[in-house]
Target: AraC family transcriptional regulator
Amino acid sequence: MLPIYEEKKKDLHIHLKTSAHASPHLHNSTEFIYITEGSLELGMGQELFHMEEGDFAVIFPDVIHHYQVFSQGNNKACYLWAKPALNGQFTEIIQNSCPEDPVIKKEDVHPDIVNAVSCLLANRKAKDDDFAVEQAYVQILLARSIPHFQLTEKSRVESNDIIYQTVSYIARHFKESVSLESMARDLGISKFALSRVFSGTFHRNFNQFLNEQRLNYVVVHLECTEDSITDICMDAGFESQRTFNRVFRERYRMTPREYRNSYKEKYLREELT
Model:
């Protein structure tokens, strides 16, 4: 999952993986989700959109969203994240608007979308990351999906609501040395009011939420890059390797190295099925 304001080296990332819960987040990439098995609940704004096998969704950049998985059994999807450079002729639309309902149901998904996703998966397997080819397929995904959407101005979504401000602030500053006090000061509210936002809305305190976002960044880079674990840890904003290792193990019940190896083995198995 790429549940944070990511800065990835590649222009396109694509994962065929088991769906899992992801807390509210935003990022500067356009995200595409194609359900391959089971279901997924996609939250955007105050709405929760149900997705089933064959459904397709597009999440525009800088829009807060989250995932939930309620159904038992296998729940898998193909997740794609395209950096702004791949938006091409759709850049202005994507920057200034967003879908009121981001989901296209299976019966309305154009065959070109399915083909583009399949080709991008095949290219990843072949380690073919040619920019022109990736941009062409992303353009197909956008061209075949945007006409289905009822678009609204993004400024209507990017409100002055404290929840949006909170998620947006953490997304942009999680790599820095940030505290509840400094964040409250920057947002112009009391630290007590901000603390209530974290406990009441996100059901975790400030440090837990901040570390969760940092870990989201970490696991993406463990999965998608060969960068050293130390470099990933420090780049994510953790002040020490010791703190990072403790927080990582508390959440994933394994070390970062074990997680990376486990992911590689699982990915290879899923690629073969």
Residues 1-8 have pLDDT under 50 and may be disordered. The chain has eleven helices and eleven strands.
